[in-house]
Write a structure and sequence with these properties.
Keywords: ATP-binding, Nucleotide-binding, Transport. The chain has 281 residues and is an alpha/beta fold. The chain has a single domain, classed as Rossmann fold, CATH 3.40.50.300. Helix content is 28%, strand content 25%. It has nine helices and twelve strands. A six-stranded mixed beta sheet has the order 6-7-8-3-9-10, with helices on both faces. Strands 2-1-4-5 form a four-stranded antiparallel beta sheet, with helices on one face. A two-stranded antiparallel ribbon has the order 11-12. A hairpin with a 2-residue loop joins strand 4 and strand 5. The longest helix is centred in the middle third of the chain and has 14 residues. The structure holds adenosine-5'-triphosphate. Adenosine-5'-triphosphate binds next to helix 1.
């Protein structure tokens, strides 16, 4: 999946800034995501992750800077061209019409269709494969209005896959998912061969999934590198205000964080964290 994958394309954010009503939400953010790379975007609530992703899937236009897909500025392309190559699963994604699951998934083919709403045999197979991958085949004829939050999230992910994108943009895709479906989804992202830009809150799942991690704070990039380079005790403390011990998973060797829970003697600090030292964005 996809059956005939398009080559994964690199995507770059070049000095993008976003200002809304005089407030800077994103400040001169530059990131390069290589073709087939999984880049995780981390940061505290309100740090600008969703805003940065909105600029990539064109729900928002940066006030300055540009987003380049395979070297070409998105603002030079039609929205339909972008939709053929970039699929998004976002906090704004909706499935609130009284459609069946298979109908919602088939909508992912819309950017590829020229007038005809009929799916070809290959497209129907693509939809079946996406339902199977997201473990929702048994829900195919159910109305999406009757689904649980996690089931709906998997339907939206299947819709993104049938789009056969070169780039997947995902804003907290593990929201609502139980632990098995979280692991399956992130394992799939690692194997899918697409370029993936994914905002995550779970630092341990990010460490296990992402080739590189970028950390935002107050709309600015404060660190970017491999999970081991970025997820240090110093960064976790200064950006998230949490004490943690870094360990490696005994079987997989993946970096994991063990968090210190606050106690009456050691309450969590709520003062604004400072810039981590020695971490180059
Ligand atoms: N249209 C807007 N107008 C004004 N402020 C906005 C707008 N969109 C976002 N913001 C603000 O910009 C900041 C960044 O929001 P954003 O949703 O990008 O953060 P986030 O890192 O995705 O947060 P979370 O982890 O809570 O999802 C927040 O303070 C938010 O309130």
């Amino acid at each position: 999946m996809p059956a005939h994958p398009p080559s994964a394309l690199p995507i770059s954010l070049r000095g993008i800034s976003v200002e809304v009503a005089g407030t800077t939400l994103i400040r001169e953010l530059s990131l390069d995501v290589g073709g087939g790379e999984v880049l995780g975007l981390l940061g505290p609530n309100g740090s600008g992750k969703s805003t940065a992703l909105r600029c990539v899937y064109r729900a928002m236009r940066p006030t300055a800077g540009a987003v380049l897909l395979d070297g070409e500025s998105l603002s030079e392309q039609s929205i339909r061209d972008t939709a053929r190559r970039i699929a998004a699963l976002t906090q704004d994604s909706r499935a609130e019409l009284d459609f069946t699951v298979e109908e919602v998934v088939a909508l992912g083919r819309y950017p590829h269709q020229n007038g005809s709403a009929r799916l070809t045999g290959r497209e129907r197979e693509l939809c079946r494969e996406a339902l199977r991958r997201m473990d929702i085949t048994h829900l195919a004829t159910r109305s999406v209005l009757t689904l649980s939050g996690g089931e709906r999230q998997r339907v939206l992910m299947a819709r993104a896959l049938v789009q056969e994108p070169a780039v997947l943009v995902l804003d907290e895709p593990t929201n609502h998912l139980d632990v098995r479906h979280q692991i399956e989804l992130l394992g799939f992202l690692r194997r899918c061969g697409l370029t993936v830009l994914v905002a995550l809150h779970d630092l341990n799942l990010a460490a296990a999934t992402c080739d590189r991690i970028a950390v935002l704070r107050s709309g600015a990039l404060v660190a970017c590198g491999t999970p081991a380079e970025v997820l240090t005790t110093g960064l976790v403390r200064s950006v998230f205000g949490v004490d943690a011990t870094v360990v490696t998973h005994p079987r997989t060797g993946v970096l994991q964080l063990l968090y210190d829970m606050p106690t009456a003697d050691r309450p969590i600090e709520t003062d604004s964290p400072t810039t981590p030292e020695g971490i180059a964005p």
